[in-house]
Specification:
Radius of gyration: 23 Å
Strand content: under 5%
Shape: globular
CATH superfamily: MFS general substrate transporter like domains
Number of helices: 19
Number of domains: 1
CATH class: Mainly Alpha
CATH architecture: Up-down Bundle
Distance between the termini: 47 Å
CATH topology: Growth Hormone, Chain: A
Number of strands: 0
Largest sheet: none
Structural class: mainly alpha
Helix content: over 70%
């Protein structure tokens, strides 16, 4: 079985134009370092895998670290969402920003700690008589990766909730279209940021760092700067005066027991989940099957493309394996870049369709927010396109064909990052449980990725037992079947809305 290299990873115009612009700036870098949205950044995840391998983390252990993102998205973010909904600050009126700031600081600390594992191990080794460096590296890698993914949850959830809360229902499609552009820009900028040699920029401090350390420092500085601007200028709906009273059983303040607050947050999530409107519950089901299909593409796309190049290369492999693998990774990286550009172009086109200019076209009613069936129909098309692309993998034999295939599903990727957020946003905009709704939506995205990881691992074991070399294609076909299920649920959603 070939080595799995992961690739990587979501206004009242007068009131919110500034808020939206600033928040977009924050998210453009947030999506470059987060899972999502897992929550999905191909280039970053590949660099992280390479870094973990370079410090001696065994390759079979890395999947346990990859699963940290979906696991934290499923279990941790709903708790932070409920806590932020019921949070009553002693000073000020902001419920989301304290969580965003705390998440940012924790994310930066975790990321820098991850980049300095070798230095930390060296210090501990100086005060120890035994050679425990490898054990320490493994422990610190687990702690840092899981701390990073936990830290991202209040940051990611808080920013998304602020986006939804900053605009009325009728503008949620517009916000979602802008969010899809941010995701696409994050993919492209993340690719370039990971490709350039930061040490050669002439900055004295960075020039003495490794590439991964320089990347972590750069992203940390950008994250701190954009989060500060967001919290200073982004507007947040204050809670009413009656909500500012002393915290009751369902309210969280710093004076309450953290244990009781977390228990209450879990209970509130169950209550919220049971009281969801039918259409929101259907969106969650669509997301479950959709992300069950996206997981193999996100984590095995680079390996799939690299295998295509190696198997179709017309050069002799004897004594050239290292060079061939390097060329294969370059070809695969170029394909993921095209994927990002197609996703960006699709996002820009959809943004035009939901803008005010598009309202004069009779067949486009997206901008008014009155006809969500148009968005749902586009989403249905995205699932079918993705499924067809996955089933086509069995016929793809060359890297050129694989590149076209991967670039094509960039259309589906943009629709996946636009439509559900536009639909859910309409409910979040008027809900007192906005944080929980946003976090439960994220859990619907994260939980199927854990299941997909297990299914993919089983498929790989079966393929290995049978002596098959097309194990990744098996996973792609599983993704196609999941996309068919997502399309079926999307069709049910369309019937419900009409």
């Amino acid at each position: 079985m070939s080595q799995r290299l992961s690739m990587s990873d979501e206004i009242d115009d007068e009131r919110s134009n500034l808020s939206l612009d600033v928040t977009e700036g924050k998210l453009s870098f947030d999506v470059s370092i987060e899972e999502t949205e897992l929550e999905r950044k191909f280039r970053r995840s590949r660099l992280l895998t390479a870094y973990l391998l370079s410090i001696g983390i065994p390759n079979p252990v890395t999947p346990i670290l990859w699963i940290a993102g979906p696991l934290c998205g499923m279990l941790v973010q709903p708790i932070f969402g409920a806590l932020s909904d019921s949070f009553r600050p002693r000073y000020g009126h902001s419920r989301r920003k304290p969580f965003v700031l705390a998440g940012t600081l924790a994310t930066v600390f975790s990321m820098l700690s991850l980049a300095c594992i070798d230095d930390t191990v060296y210090v501990f080794q100086l005060i120890s008589s035994n050679d425990i460096s490898q054990t320490l590296r493994l422990i610190f890698a687990f702690l840092c990766v899981y701390a990073l993914n936990i830290s991202l949850q209040p940051l990611q959830g808080g920013i998304r909730t602020m986006l939804f809360e900053s605009c009325p229902r009728e503008q949620q499609a517009k916000v979602a279209s802008q969010y899809s552009i941010i995701v696409a820009l994050g993919n492209v900028s993340g690719y370039f940021l990971g490709s350039i040699s930061l040490q050669e920029l002439g900055i004295p401090i960075i020039s003495r760092m490794t590439q991964f350390q320089a990347l972590c420092v750069t992203i940390s500085l950008l994250l701190l700067a954009t989060t500060t601007i967001t919290c200073l200028y982004a507007k947040e709906d204050p809670f009413t005066a009656s909500e500012h009273t002393s915290p009751g059983p369902g309210r969280f303040s710093l004076r309450r027991s953290y244990r009781s607050a977390i228990i209450n947050a879990v209970w509130e999530n169950f209550i919220c989940l049971r009281s969801l409107p039918d259409y929101v519950y259907l969106v969650f089901q669509v997301q479950f099957f959709s992300w069950l299909g996206w997981f193999p593409v996100i984590y095995y796309q680079t390996s799939y493309l690299a295998d295509l190049y190696i198997s179709s290369a017309s050069v002799e492999k004897n004594n050239m394996e290292e060079s061939l693998n390097a060329d294969a990774m370059k070809k695969a990286s170029f394909a993921t870049l095209l994927f990002s550009f197609v996703a960006l172009i699709t996002a820009l086109l959809l943004s035009f369709l939901v803008s005010r200019k598009a309202t004069r076209f009779r067949y486009v009613r997206i901008a008014t927010g009155e006809d969500s069936t148009v968005l749902v129909t586009l989403w249905l098309f995205g699932h079918l396109l993705f499924a067809a692309s996955m089933f086509t993998t069995i016929f793809v034999k060359t890297i050129s064909q694989g590149t076209i295939l991967v670039a094509t599903i960039g259309i589906s990727w943009t629709l996946t990052n636009l439509v559900p957020f536009a639909i859910i946003g309409k409910e979040v905009a008027q809900s007192p449980q906005a944080g929980m709704l946003t976090s439960l939506h994220n859990a619907a995205i994260s939980s199927p990725q854990i299941l997909a990881a297990v299914i993919s691992a089983l498929l790989f074991l079966v393929a290995k037992y049978m002596g098959r070399r097309d194990d990744i294609i098996w996973a792609m076909w599983m993704a196609g079947l999941a996309a068919i299920a997502a399309a079926w649920k999307t069709l049910q959603l369309r019937f419900l809305l009409t």
